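FAQ

Q: What does a record look like?
A: Structure on top, sequence underneath. For example:
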């Protein structure tokens, strides 16, 4: 089996393709997927560089990658609902398992997978699992009733775009903070636009029922949330203390095949946009990491075997 791997921390140059790995076998409740596409995330870059701030469950070497879009290749005992040949998507909870998706074959728990969206290329479908579930679970934590106002910082990024789309579907009134060049995208998702600023934002304090902080702005963003509102921090260590009765949540995305299946339906109905910034082969994994590290990426950087 071929896979992208690294045996030491460092820059993108530490990435290489290993060609002689054993094909993993699915155990009880597991499914083996032959990969068609995956995605590079900022956390992949952080871990590769040796800058992840918490211990990992196993040591080097690592195969990076979370998202899986591909075809069921083998089914383990006690698995219902999947069979060989099914097109599926899902993601590996890498920080807990270090099971990387940038490999020709990946074994995952069946409950982490769902049927892939019909008629959508794998390179696009792969952009949905991790980022889509992050957005969905952020809004699930807030549990806002229709008509509520929600502020999304980092609205033009992948998670931000999904958050705006899901807020629209849920009947929420969203406002997105993003760069000046992202106004068209933010407004295309039915959200109001606020330009990113190095100083105070042009927003009255206490305006919003809740905020989803994907740009890691922190406590100053909470000033824009009304008393008793809600605030989701995208990075658990950066969860601020509650003030003025604001509920604060630390978001850690979890695999959920059932919830992902709901998002697939929204993709098929056209309610959720899937954005691809570029597609790279395993052999060009270093270039993919460099592209993401440059910043300003609008859409996912996709890896294919």
């Amino acid at each position: 089996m071929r896979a992208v791997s690294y045996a030491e921390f460092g820059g993108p140059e530490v990435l290489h393709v290993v060609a002689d790995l054993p094909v993993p076998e699915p155990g009880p409740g597991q499914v083996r997927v032959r990969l068609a596409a995956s995605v590079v995330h900022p956390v992949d870059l952080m871990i590769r560089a040796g800058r992840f701030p918490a211990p990992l469950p196993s040591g080097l070497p690592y195969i990076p990658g979370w998202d899986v879009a591909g075809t069921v290749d083998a089914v383990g005992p006690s698995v219902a609902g999947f069979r060989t040949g099914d097109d599926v998507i899902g993601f590996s909870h890498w920080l807990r398992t270090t099971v990387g998706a940038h490999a020709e074959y990946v074994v995952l728990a069946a409950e982490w997978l769902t049927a892939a969206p019909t008629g959508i290329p794998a390179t696009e479908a792969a952009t949905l699992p991790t980022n889509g579930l992050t957005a969905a679970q952020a809004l699930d934590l807030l549990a806002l009733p229709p008509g509520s106002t929600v502020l999304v910082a980092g609205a033009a990024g992948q998670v931000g775009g999904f958050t705006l789309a899901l807020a629209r579907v849920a009947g929420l009134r969203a406002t997105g903070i993003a760069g000046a060049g992202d106004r068209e995208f933010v407004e295309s998702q039915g959200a109001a636009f606020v330009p990113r600023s190095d100083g105070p934002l042009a927003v009255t304090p206490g305006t919003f029922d809740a905020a989803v902080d994907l740009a890691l702005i922190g406590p100053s963003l909470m000033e824009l949330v009304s008393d008793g509102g809600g605030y989701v921090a995208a990075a658990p260590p950066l969860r601020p203390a509650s003030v003025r009765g604001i509920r604060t949540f630390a978001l850690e995305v979890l695999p959920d095949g059932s919830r992902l299946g709901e998002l697939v339906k929204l993709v098929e109905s056209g309610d959720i946009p899937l954005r691809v910034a570029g597609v790279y082969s395993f052999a060009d994994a270093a270039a993919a990491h460099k592209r993401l590290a440059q910043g300003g990426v609008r859409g996912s950087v996709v890896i294919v075997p």
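Q: Is there anything notable about this one?
A: The mean pLDDT is 96.
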